[in-house]
Design brief:
Elements (H helix, E strand, L loop, with lengths): L25 H16 L4 E3 L9 E6 L4 E14 L2 E6 L7 E6 L2 E7 L5 E7 H14 L8 E4 L2 H14 L1
């Protein structure tokens, strides 16, 4: 388990479609652990393998009220529905935040670290985060989907407002 450097845009690995994982072995399990450590260190809610310079279809996302870790190996989007515009950021784009339209519902199929295939349905923020990370695996970056960017002052004001409401 190691904290890795987060690859920043415009690195080519971020816009390159990743390769399927053929065998889930100790290397892949170590990759999942490195993704987790790196995500936590950089205060993210998700991270994909290309963001630590690995071109494999592996990503993790914190989901649910308990912020459980969802490990996705070779994820496939089976179904989406709805649409909502909301603000996103990305570890590979420090300081960039913008509105992105994404489905409000997603159903995926993926493998876990044990090699078990599972299906998962998610909505709202969880669907957004899952789709953001799967986009990374397809070489698609959120900056290409932004319809409006936010200034640092706007972000600071939003955090201040959230703290006042808490």
């Amino acid at each position: 388990m190691t904290i890795k450097e987060v690859v920043k845009h415009p690195a080519k690995v971020l816009t390159t479609k990743t390769k399927e994982v053929e065998v889930i072995n100790e290397e892949i399990i170590a990759l999942l652990d490195d993704l987790y450590d790196t995500m936590i260190e950089h205060d993210g809610v998700g991270i994909a393998a290309p963001q630590i310079d690995v071109g494999l279809r592996v990503a993790i996302v914190e989901i649910g009220d308990e912020r459980d870790i969802l490990e996705m190996i070779n994820p496939t989007v089976l179904e989406t529905d709805g649409a909502e515009v909301d603000m996103e950021g990305c570890l590979s784009f420090p300081g960039l935040f913008g509105d992105v339209e994404r489905p409000t519902y997603v159903r995926i199929e993926a493998a876990d670290r044990e090699g078990r295939i599972y299906e998962l349905e998610a909505g709202g923020f969880d669907a957004r985060a899952i789709l953001h990370e799967i986009d990374h695996l397809d070489g698609v970056l959120f900056n290409d989907k932004i319809t409006r960017t936010y200034t640092e002052e706007e972000i600071a004001a939003m955090y201040e407002e959230m703290e006042e409401e808490a």
